[in-house]
Predict the structure.
Amino acid sequence: MDWFNRLVVKTMPIVPKPVVRRASQRYIAGAALADAVRVVRDLNQRGMMATLDILGEFISKREEATATATAYMQALDVIAKEKLNSNISIKLTAFGLKLNYDFCLENVGKVVQHARNLGNFVRLDMEDSSCTSDTIRIYQTLRKDFDNVGVVIQSYMRRALADIRSLMANGTPTNVRLCKGIYVEPRSIAYKNRELINKNFTFLLDELLRGGAYVGIATHDERLVWDGMRLVDQLKLPKDKYEFQMLLGVDEELRDVIVNAGHRLRIYVPFGKHWYAYSVRRLQENPQIAGYVIRKFFGMKE
Ligand SMILES: Cc1cc2nc3c(=O)[nH]c(=O)nc-3n(C[C@H](O)[C@H](O)[C@H](O)COP(=O)(O)OP(=O)(O)OC[C@H]3O[C@@H](n4cnc5c(N)ncnc54)[C@H](O)[C@@H]3O)c2cc1C
């Protein structure tokens, strides 16, 4: 039934909103901060940590970027007030990266400062390749004054090894989330072969862990989870030197396997009023799930 899944993905933009909402419920906490709080509290009770992502869309004005910062600071306040075990993940384009570099740096700096005041942490998500150098530069600049900020490295990028070596140069303390990478990039700068992307993931993970970086091992690929578990065991790393990370709603069985094996796990919890665009992207990424959900919705046989 591969044709059905492919058809679902192709036609996703014309699928009625309520159908997409139903299909994406498992990936998104809801439209409001209160929804995210409920989901994070539940995850915490199951022994998992969280990171909050406020879903945003393309911005074109500085006021919108400032509003993003304000919304994240409110989220940090609520995390503190509700005593939740959660940090935040932010996208620099929503903080004005494409408007003005210095403005973006200042805007992000305010949130990182606010997080530090509350004893919390900010992860700079990695976006498409047009943002890679600036994101790393902003991370390195902030890291000079703050230790509560981390960045993301994508193993599909050919530059990834050079990037982590520059991050860790001279033993600089480094906090990295390692993932495969989600954007469509040209072969000239990114590996296209899945096996190679996986090999590079393990290779980079080895470099990072041996180099003393704190690593968020972000994957649902059980082979890479296995590599991660084997490496931390070999290196005899204490549990507070790394964590596994997964997206909300993806492979909950694997998530329990990781927690039951005694590792720390953080769940990425997206929420916000821009849930629709995010849902379409997620479902397009995973045709199998999209097909399954839509089939169920229309009462079709699997
Ligand atoms: C916590 C976290 C943060 C991330 N942050 C970033 C970032 O900042 N920048 C960036 O470019 N990418 C980010 N990603 C996405 C990442 O780069 C991958 O695209 C994504 O995780 C899929 O890769 P995978 O390692 O899970 O392996 P895959 O081989 O793609 O997937 C392994 C298995 O998991 C299932 N699966 C994977 N993703 C989904 C999904 N979305 N829905 C349902 N099932 C799924 C697949 O069906 C497959 O069976 C992040 C991922 C995670 C988990």
